[in-house]
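Folding Task

Wanted — backbone structure
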Amino acid sequence: MQPLIDNARTFGQRPEEFARLADGQSPEVLFITCSDSRVVPALITGARPGQLFELRTAGNIVPPYVSESPTGEAATIEYAVEVLGVRDVVVCGHSHCGAVGALVRGDDLDSVPAVRAWLAHAADEPTAVEPADAGDPTVARAVQHHVLAQLLRLRSYPCVDKRLADGRLRVRGWYYEVHTGAVREHRVDTDSFEAL
């Protein structure tokens, strides 16, 4: 913890670099990704403060949209799309994902009931594409399938659906390899994840 504290102490000693941020924010991208500490959106994209609006959830899960029972995730998505007017939404899954791996392997999550309940939100539970995939520590295929399921869930949000229909919004599915740093994007024409 001490190195983080030391950096935080010196970070605020350059106020001139941050003064413009007080004027507001106008990010162009909502970046939905996992809470995993190895996934750092600004590092992956090279974004500076104010360029990404981030939503991080265990397993980069987009929960179902229920207007009568809004969630923090739904509010974040709606705010990014309707108020900030982001032009793109990226759902980024990653290799070695503990959440997707637990679903694929059918791990016993009784000792973490909140995690178990949250993972039940996974749209179209990810499964191993082939039996050997369950033993693959990267769970690559399952994560990619999971990203596509979350994109479908995202499209069910009224604000997203409306902006997609009028061409003011694009949604993208990314897969990040924590062990190589490579990023792949889902291509609709080939239905595969390919290098950016």
